Structure formats: C-alpha cells, structure tokens
Amino acid sequence: MVSPYLIRVQSGREEPEDAFVSVSYRDHWFWINDTDYRSKRMFSFLMYLFRLAERGKPQQVPVLTIPTG
C-alpha cells in the first residue's frame, strides 16, 4: 500500500524523544519521527534542494557607520 503523504509531521506539547528533526513553536513541538524513513528521506531531499538553490556567495550587507566624535 502506498502512503498518501510525502512528509508526516507530528505535533504535541511535549518535546519528542525520538525525533529526526524537531522545532518548538508557540508552546507546541513539531517533529519528524526518527523511524519514519519516508519522511526523513523527503525532508533531506528538500533540504538538499534548498542548499542547491542558494547563491554561491553570501550577499553583502550594508555597513552603517555612526560618527562618535
């Protein structure tokens, strides 16, 4: 049977013990279970795509100079 989801993100109020990746947001925890290989693989693939989409050189931020004397 083929699963209908690409990534299964679980949530709850307690910090997960068996998470591949987790984040706390507004008093809730969101995570991908460490035993969910399909979700782990898809999440890793998406992170790889984001990494490829980054530019080669970080953008230069403007420098603000404030005279003190």
Detail the topology: elements first, then pairings.
Elements: E1 10-12, E2 19-25, E3 28-33, H1 37-53
Polypeptide structure, described:
This protein is of the alpha+beta class. The protein has a domain at 10-53. It has 1 helix and 3 strands, in the order βββα. β2 (19-25) and β3 form a beta hairpin. The longest helix is centred in the middle third of the chain and has 17 residues, at 37-53. The chain starts with 9 loop residues before the first strand and ends in a 16-residue tail after the last helix.
State Rg: 19 Å
Number of strands: 3
| Number of contiguous helices | 1
Helix/strand/pairing category: alpha+beta
Based on CA inertia axes, which overall geometry fits? elongated
Beta strand %: 15-25%
Strand count, sense and barrel status of the largest sheet are: 3 strands, antiparallel
End-to-end Cα distance, whole Å, is: 73 Å
**Spatial ordering of strands, largest sheet:** 1-3-2
Q: Mean pLDDT, rounded to whole units?
A: 88
Fraction in helix: 10-25%
Low-confidence stretches: none
Features:
69 residues, 1 helix, three-stranded antiparallel beta sheet, alpha+beta, single chain
In short:
The protein is of the alpha+beta class and 69 residues long.
